[in-house]
Design a protein that fits this description.
10-stranded mixed β-sheet, globular, D-Maltodextrin-Binding Protein, domain 2, 44% helix, alpha/beta, disordered N terminus, 2 domains, single chain
């Protein structure tokens, strides 16, 4: 029996070895879960251009928005496992959507082969200037004095801008009212500036100009370290909520079953690309911090995110519409 197993494994390695050695010999497609101009698109475009130069074949970006990222996730999950269809994965299609939906078009725990993390982005807790608070501790005290009266906006149920608030309420014992919007950050930002809602756990990029102009007041950043764009703004963790750490993250994944030599080739090229100064500069302009690592590191991070958000989603009773 063991001889047959060994023969099967050896033949499998021989079959995929020529494929990996020839990779890539046709265009590569990078699928993004959101439209042109979105964060995932900002990540994919320079990456595609640099990867094309490195491997000598075309690399195209396929914007496939819809269903909170599930359309893109499904396209990659069901693609041939050959390294020619990649996903710019994020919290939604890789982790959270499966926690929100009773039925998914793919199994996010088994559908993908992680290649590398690509970028992370902190969020920032902002409030309307009229709010009688100057710190996170002040906000917690106010929220406890007015349970169920303060509202925070987000770009939709299960979005990172929603999860940031859900994590905050669970860790502080406060009752904030979630107001989901559709279509990104624009609408909830407008309503926050005009005072229709009181606060938001916003992506940093759309908040920068409003904070600097005094239209919004920044109380804390969501990551475990202060953000270079707001060095004067403390982290939420150092402002009364120890252990609070919420970041949007983005990484590159292939279809499960992609040969390991192909994964390793892609990882090597992408780690180099993500360290390039011009790529890092483009990402930073979009509120992103380029990062990278091994496939094993990325896989472990995804597992930790699944465990973390599983607890938060369950405790908050979050369900998709």
């Amino acid at each position: 029996m063991f001889k047959n197993i060994y023969l099967h494994i050896s033949l499998g390695a021989l079959v995929c070895a020529p494929c990996a050695a020839a990779y890539p010999d046709k265009p590569i497609r990078i699928v993004t879960p959101f439209p042109a101009g979105s964060v995932t698109d900002i990540i994919a475009r320079p990456m595609a251009a640099k990867l094309s130069e490195a491997v000598g074949t075309g690399v195209v970006v396929d914007n496939r928005g819809g269903a909170g990222g599930n359309l893109a996730g499904d396209a990659v999950a069901k693609a041939a496992p050959d390294g020619y269809t990649l996903l710019i994965g994020s919290t939604g299609p890789v982790v959270v959507n499966a926690l929100l939906h009773a039925k998914m078009p793919y199994d996010s725990q088994r559908a993908f082969a992680p290649i590398t993390m690509a970028a992370v982005a902190a969020m920032i807790l902002v409030v309307h200037p009229s709010m009688p608070v100057t710190s996170v501790k002040d906000l917690i005290a106010l929220a406890k004095a007015r349970p169920g009266q303060l509202t925070y906006g987000s770009s939709g149920i299960g979005a990172t801008t929603h999860l940031g608030g859900a994590l905050f309420t669970s860790m502080t014992g406060t009752q904030l009212i979630h107001v989901p919007y559709k279509g990104g950050s624009t609408q909830y930002t407008i309503d926050l500036i005009t005072g229709r809602i009181q606060l938001a756990f916003s992506s940093i990029a759309p908040a920068v100009a409003h904070v600097k102009a005094g239209r919004l007041k920044a109380l804390g950043v969501s990551s475990d370290k202060r953000d270079p764009q707001f060095p004067e703004v403390p982290t939420i963790a150092e402002s009364g909520v120890p252990g609070y750490d919420m970041r949007s993250w983005y990484g590159v994944l292939a279809t499960a079953g992609t040969p390991q030599p192909v994964i390793e080739r892609l990882n090597s090229e992408l780690v180099r690309i993500l360290a390039l100064p011009d790529v890092r500069s483009i990402y930073l302009a979009g509120g992103l911090h380029a990062t990278s690592g091994t496939p094993a590191d990325f896989a472990a991070y995804i597992r930790s995110e699944r465990e973390k958000w599983g607890k938060v989603v369950k405790a908050a009773g979050i369900k998709a519409d």
